Every structure is written in C-alpha cells, then in structure tokens.
Amino acid sequence: MSAEAEAVAGPRRLSLIARLPVTLLVGGGIVLFWILVAVLGPRLSPYDPIAIDIGHSLLPPGGQHWLGTDSFGRDLLTRLMYGAGTDLQMSFFGVVGPFIIGTTVGLLAGNFGGRADTVLMRILDITVSFPYFVLVIAIVALLQPGLISYYISLTLVNWVSYARLVRSQVIVLKHADFVLAARTIGLGEVRVMTHHLLPNSIAPAVVFVMTDAVLTIVLGSSLGFLGLGVQPPAAEWGVMIAEGQLYLGIAWWISVFPGLAIAFLALGFSLVADGLARLLHTSQ
Amino acid sequence: MSKDPFLSVEDLAIEFATAHGPVPALRGVSFAMARGEVLGVVGESGSGKTVACRSIMRLVAENGRIVSGRIRFEGDDVLALDPAALRKLRGERVAMIFQNPSTHLDPLQPVGLQVGEALRVHHGLDAKAARRRAIELLADMRIPDPQRRVDAYPHELSGGMRQRVMIAAALACRPSLLIADEPTTALDVTVQAQILDLLRQLRKEHGLSIVLVSHDLGVVAEMCDRVVVMKDGQVVETGPVAQVIEQPEADYTRRLIASQPALMKPVERARRPDAPAILALDKLRVEFRQPRRLVDWIRRNPPHVIKAVDGISVTVDRGGALGIVGESGSGKSTIARAIVGLAPVLGGQIIFEQAPILAMKPAERKQFRRAVQMVFQDPFTSLNPSYTVAQTLAEPIRHHKLCPEAEIPARVAELMARVELSAELLARHPSQLSGGQRQRVGIARALALEPKLIIADEVTSALDVTIQAQILGLFEKLRQSMNLTLILISHDLAVVRHLCEQVAVMRNGKLVEFGATEQIFAAPRESYTRDLLAAIPRMGRRRSEPAPLPADA
Question: Which residue, of A68, B258, B270, B323, has the fewest CB within 10 Å?
Fold first, then answer.
C-alpha cells in the first residue's frame, strides 16, 4: 500500500510544480535569487561595504569594481548585495505585524459583529482617513529614525488593509452552509474561526502580502532617502540612491543600480502575488 | 415536413479548450423543429443541452469552437451569417430567456427601459415610443398595472414578475423563435404554473415557436410537442412527447423517467399511532427584527418585526418522517434552523424526547446537539473547501470524543460505506467531487454523531433527477437500518410524498395543514394546498391545449 502510494506520489509532485502558474514560478525565482544574493553575496565579495577609500571614489563600472564605486570609494556591487539583506528583511518584518494583527481583527470583527465590530471599524475608518505616507513618516519621526520604528509605524497603520480584506470575506462565509454545519456539530467559536472561517477567507490577504511587501520596500527606501530609515553608512538601497543623487550628473551608476535592484525585487513580489491569486482562485 | 424546416441542427459538434486539452461538449447533435412547435430539450447538467440551444444563436463560450455541423434557421445558414445579419438574428428573430431572472436584469435600470432597449437599438424607436411599446408588452405578459410597473426597478418585483419582464424584453422585437433555458427552475411551483401558462398563451396568440430547455420531464411533458433527450453531448432519443414518455426506446430515457419523484412509489409504511413523538413543536415562534434606523427612533416607530415562523405546532413520530412543504419565504427552513439552535426562538416550545430544549443545561444541550443533525441544501457550499473528506468526517467524531483517536479512521471508513461512497475519495477535497458525491459526504457528516433525528433541508433540489432518486433511496435505506427519524424540508411535493408519512404545509410562516401524507394528497382541506397540488407539472397529463398551428409551408 505504502510503496504503491509512494510510486504515485513521485510523478504527481513533479506535475504539481508544472501546474503552478508561470508567474508564480518566475516571481518565486526572482525572490529566491535575491535571497541567495543576500546570503552569499557578503561572503563572496572581497570588499568592505562601509570602509571609506577616498582614493578610489567615483570609479565607473568595470575593471576591479564591476558596478563602480560611490563617492566614498566603496564598491557598489558589495553594498548592493549587503543592501539586499536589509531590504528583504524590511519587506518581511514590515508586513508580518500588520498581517497577523489585521487578519485577527478582521476575523473577530467579521464573525462576532455587533458593537465590537462597529468600534473596530470606526477606528479603521479614522486610520484610513489620514494620508498613508504622511502618517507613517510622522510616527517614525516621533519615535526615532530607524528600522524598528519603521516596523512599529507600519504595524500601527497598515493592519487596516488586512482587517478589511478578511472581515469582508468572513461576513460572507459565516452564513455559508459549511459554517452552519460546523456549528450544528457543536464546535466552539474558536474552532469554527480557526478551522472553518480562517482558511477559507485568508487567500486575498495572502495575495495582498506580496503587493504590500513591494510597497514596504519602496516606502522604506523613501524613508532611507529622507534620512528616517536605515542610517548611513549602513547599506540599504534607498540610502544608496539618496547618496548618489548629488553625483547624478557625473556618476549615474551610484543611484541607478540600487534603483534597478528595487524595481527587480518588486517585480518578483508582484509576479508572486499574481501567481498566488491564480493558484488560490483555481483551487477554491 | 417540408424540405426546408423552420429550424434544423445537423451533426453539430462543439468542443471546449481546457487546461487538459480540448473537451467535446457536443458530439454530432441533430434535431429539427417546425414553425409553431414547442420543442423540449431535456438532460442533466453537463449533457450539453444549454450549449446546443445557445449555438442556435451562434453564442458559444470564448473557449468553445464549432468543429463541424450545420444550423439552418428560416432558410439561412446560421454558421455562415455575416456579423450584421448575425446581430439581426440575435434579438430580432431568435430571443432567449434564462433561468435566473434576477441576475439577467440590470438592477440599476427601470424594467421598462430594459424591455424597450432592443426596440430602440434594432428598430430605432425613440424613447417615448419605446416606453409605450414596453407598457403594451408588459400588459401582454399579464403584468398587472403596467403603467406603473414600467418604471419599477427589478428589486421591486417578485421572481415571477421578473421572469415576465424577461420574456417581455425577449419578445420586444417579435422574434419567431424563443429559446427558454430552464425558465421556471428558480421559481415556486405555483409561479412556475403561471409562467408556463403564459408561454402557452403566447404561442397560441402570436404563433411563437419555443425551444424549452429543462431538466424537469414533467414540465416538458406538459408543454412540448416533441422532445429531444440529451446525455453527454449526444442526442439519446427524439420524438413526439407522448411516444417518448410512454414508450421510451433508450435506456437512459427510461432511467430518467423512473427517477421522476412523481412516479416513484410512496413508501409503504403506515403511521404507528402508538409510537411516541420524538420531537414536538408547540406554538413555535421565530421573529427577526429589522435594525432600527434614526427615523424610527425619532418617530418612535414600533420595531419592524418579520414573523418567519408564527405559532407552528407539529409532532414527529420516532422512526417516522415528516415532510415540511411550502414556497420560498414560507418559513420552512427557519423551522429547521430553530430546532438546531441557529435561529432565535421567541415563543413556544421545542420538545425533544419529552424534554423542552430551551430549558436545557449546557451539558444536556450538547447531548441534544449530537442527537439532531442537519443536511444542507447546496452541496457546493455545505462542505469546507479546505478540508479533505476524511477531515470533514473525522472532525465531529473527534470533537465529541466518540471513540479513541486510533479508531477514527475505521469509523470514517464505516461512514463512507454507509453512504455508499468509495474510500478512495477520502483524500479528496470537495472541489474534486461531483454534486451527488458531495451530498453523500454531507449526509455522512450528519451520521457521524449517530443522531436520532436528521433534518434534511431541500437536500435534492440542487441535484439532477437521477442523482436525486439515488439520494432519496439512500435516505430511505438509512432510515430503516439506523431507525432514524427524518424531517424533510422541500418545495417539491412529489419528493415529500415519496418519503414521508406525515406532511405539514406552510405559508407565510403559518401552518396551513398538517396530517397524514396520503390523506392530504387525496383530499386536501385547504384551498392553498389544493393550488399547490394542482400546480405540479405531471407527465401523462396535458392541459387544455390549443390546437397546434399548421406547420410552415
């Protein structure tokens, strides 16, 4: 029986990958590429990402420095690879807090309704009524510039998107027959919410995580650019673009390569989002 | 028949492109009809009956492709028409109405505008003339007070009214052929009878030819001159209605006819008068309150209350079967939900095995919950899509700790055998099961807790007739082998008659009639019950028919 099952499982698993949406595979490949870069890059590079070497400043791409050097003479490729780690981290920690809190709030509000729902949704409306970027920047400025503040401010502001997505799904699903059936079996509220409502209402939120990761990187880079995010001399793509802007006329590479890196990672995430949406839609 | 028939479809083959390669939807379908005829097309879901009828207007889904065949309509080769002629064909010469009138009307436009739209587009009528004509058409459809109704929005009309509006819109340009795709499936029986009457009159008055697509042989038998029986994209049998129904040639047709609940023998089981009642409802009241608006507070309006169930008293014998029938909105499903605790009970009593359940302590209530289980109407929404079949069946057993963890797989396998499903399906998700299989899983889930009473809410109305017959047979078997008591909620009187020895007829939340099934079917005391019984379409019965018009020369 088990040998037979294994024999069936082998080719089946292969065809499972082949059946995944192309966008998911390509996007996943891009994200994986950046993860590898972040992990392996710092080990492979002979240069220090922070040490200043004025003698080699503003070298164009080519030769010893494949992507050139910046105004402090630091190797751009090395800084780009170190930056990948920072930006990937940002995309993860900037999203995970809002996702967990927003999903929980949406699930509870949608399932129980009533007063608690009304209060939570009004808080949500108030949060949404502030301009998003201004609110995030204001909170970071209030706390103290840095990545931790950025994560806190994103969590405070961004849970609303997830709460809305999940709540609207739950409100529809809680009247579905299979949820009523779960209640007639005598299951408690917690079990109904975690096993019957959540798995079937989380798909849009999961897709949104990917879109949100892109926004988080772009916003984080903007904060770095404004001096509110990662502090120089640490390597982060937004900071690198900011550093390069003074030299845009004479050394275009300092800003352009980190910009391309952001765009390429963002492309990866949005392809994954698209692929996930297709996958979750067809399996429903 | 003349050389050039009114409509002929010859050897039509259509295939759909899917992720798994092309799938044939129609395989060499041929049929023909004469002018003024009503042609019935019957078959189960997936038989290709809708695809075949839409192809008459050359409406094929985006991924569909006409592989071969010929369609001739009033002398024209439909498949060779240029775009302009095709537009003229659609809407002006052939019109179509659909199953669900609420989704095919634009909710943001008054119905008059929608009825007149085709006239403005095809005949260039101005707004005033189109409105005048729309009022005439609504009057033709026997819509009362058409001057006022012409400005109504779809949500202000009942389902039957909306279907009349759809027919009016379809007939605006005086087409010679009307394709009606399951036009009464979403409607109550009495409304269905009215719509069928209307179609019959339109045929008589305007010489309209009709293609009637239906899964209901009763409707087809009553309405049609000739019938085409389809299965798996092929025509199984075709001929005059009386002949096909009385002397079916194909095996499949015979099976289809045998599956009609109206023809199934009522269960031979008399009520045992000494059997104690397992469940009694005593003056049960369920009300839903509308949320109060600011206006209501200011004007001190009394709260607006919907009396969903209004003082119902019935009893169910142990081991017996009670049928609750009524039209949509009669409150029959609310009763079921009140019994299992999913709807608020505002008055009266629910007494289960001599104990009033509303006064039960939590522990007793848990026992009661186990003893009363429900099977739901729509097998497509009643199973958790993220659970496998095994998970669905194991959950209630585990939750109530009915057996040690190690024995759960055996219990689950036993349940699958009970509902006659192969154990191979255990690893599947609901999306990989057919409707009938899903409904069996739903029944198995209800059986998992070894209940004494099962409430089945419209359990077969989403299924094909042959599957319906199987599910009803399964219920009958389970009742006998497990000594189950059954409450069967249905709009279909024939289903209730087949399975239940007692029946309660409901209307607007009130009990109209309650008693032994055979007694009520043989001699209904209330006029509403009589209307309900008279409205059921039956095979082998044709209403006063207008003489068929002479075939087109």
Answer: B270
Is A52 part of any domain? no
B366 touches chain A (CB under 8 A): yes
Contacts of A267 (CB under 8 A, 6+ apart): A27, A30
Whether B342 sits inside 8 A of A180 (CB atoms) is: yes
pLDDT band at B548 (very low <50, low <70, confident <90, very high): very low
Q: What dotted CATH number matches B318-341+363-535?
A: 3.40.50.300
- The answer to whether the CB atoms of A195 and B395 lie below 8 A apart is yes
Closest-CA distance, B446 to chain A, in angstroms, reads: 8
CA angle B299, B305, B307 (to 5 degrees): 160
Any domain includes A120 = yes
Q: For strands B277-289 and B345-352, give the pairing.
A: antiparallel
Q: Is A1 within a domain?
A: no
Please give the CATH topology (third level) of the domain spanning B7-258: Rossmann fold (3.40.50)
Question: Is it true that B7-258 and B318-341+363-535 share their CATH fold?
Answer: yes
* Pairwise CB contact (< 8 Å): A200 & B386: yes
Residue of B nearest to A187 (CA): B399
Domain interval for residue A177: 65-283
- Spatial strand order in the sheet of B345-352: B305-317, B277-289, B345-352, B355-356
**ipTM for this prediction:** 0.74
B381·A177 Cβ contact <8 A: yes
Q: Is residue A178 part of a domain?
A: yes
pLDDT in tens, B77-105: 999 999 999 988 887 899 998 877 777 88
Domain ranges of chain B: 7-258, 318-341+363-535
> End-to-end alpha-carbon separation of chain B, Å?
9
Question: What is the three-class DSSP state of B420?
Answer: coil
* Model confidence pTM above 0.90: no
CATH number of domain containing A108: 1.10.3720.10
Nearest chain B residue (CA) to A201: B386
CB contact under 8 A, B386 and A178: no
Domain count of the fold of chain A: 1
Nearest residue on chain A to B366, judged by CA atoms?
A186
Q: Which of A92, A84, A87, A91 has the alpha carbon at shortest distance from A45?
A: A84
**In 3D, which of A201, A279, A206, A237 has the Cα closest to residue A90?**
A237
